[in-house]
Amino acid sequence: MLRLYLQTTCLQGRYSLQSNLHRQILSKLKCMGIYQNQYYRRFSNDTKEEEQLEQIYYGPLTPQIKAVKIFSLTSSVAGLMAQPIIVKQAATIGSTSLLVVICSMVGFFTFITPLLLHFITKKYVTEMCYDPKTCTYKATTINFFLAEKELEFTCDDVSVPEIPGMFTTFHAKGKPLFVEARHFNNPLYYAKLMGYDKPMDFKLGEIEDSDNNQK
Q: How many domains does the chain have?
């Protein structure tokens, strides 16, 4: 009887342990399933948002611009690091005019060149995407430190200047951008941005008003 009692108690203890382990495993599996479902949903939402955007333009000079800016920034950093040594070596010569010339040359290639290069390339659009659901455009440019900047706008935010400035095709939300028409996947996107689909205004009213004023 004692043996039977011990066997039954051991079996009950094992069964209770197994049931507790089974419950814990099931609860962990449920939590993992919930996390997996949430992850899959977030991942699917991100992929859907990326699939919604259609790339309509790519700037062909993007690799060259990045390479030139990298070279310019590295040369500027090297110039800053070497400037104390150059000034010290130039001071040993004893000529003030030579020291001024050396410092001005080093300062030009260290500071002026990267700023001038950024002024020229900051308007260049490296990539442009279009969202057909919201009818919005997303233009990507490069800032001074080679980081990508995105600008979202619509056709209503675009203004084409009568006299385009240097490296400027149109303004989007007041920011000048430069694109090349031949590198659009579909010329209709360029025509829509430039307002070629809108009725043309020949400004005949202004000519008539000027003639009346002359009379």
A: 2
Provide the pLDDT for residue 204.
52
| pTM, entire model | 0.65
Q: Do 95 and 77 sit in the same domain of this protein?
A: yes
Give the Cα separation of 100 and 161 in Å (integer): 43
Report the alpha-carbon distance of residue 207 to residue 142 in Å, rounded. Answer: 43
Q: Tokens for 203?
A: 């400004």
Is residue 212 one of the residues assigned to a domain? no
Q: How many Cβ atoms are within 10 Å of 207's Cβ, its own excluded?
A: 10
- Taking the mean position of all CA atoms in its chain, how far away is CA 25? 45
High-pLDDT (> 90) share of the chain, %:
34
Q: What angle do CA 136, 117, 65 make, to 5 degrees?
A: 60
Residue 200 per-residue DSSP state: P
Average pLDDT over residues 75-94: 76
Q: Domain residues for 107?
A: 61-121
Which of left, alpha, beta for 181 (phi over 0: left; psi -120 to 50: alpha)?
A: alpha
- Of the CA atoms within 13 Å of residue 54, those in its CB half-sphere come to 12
Largest CA distance in the chain: 131
Query: 90: number of CA atoms within 13 Å, CB side?
Result: 18
> Across the beta sheet with 158-159, what order do the strands follow?
158-159, 170-172, 175-177
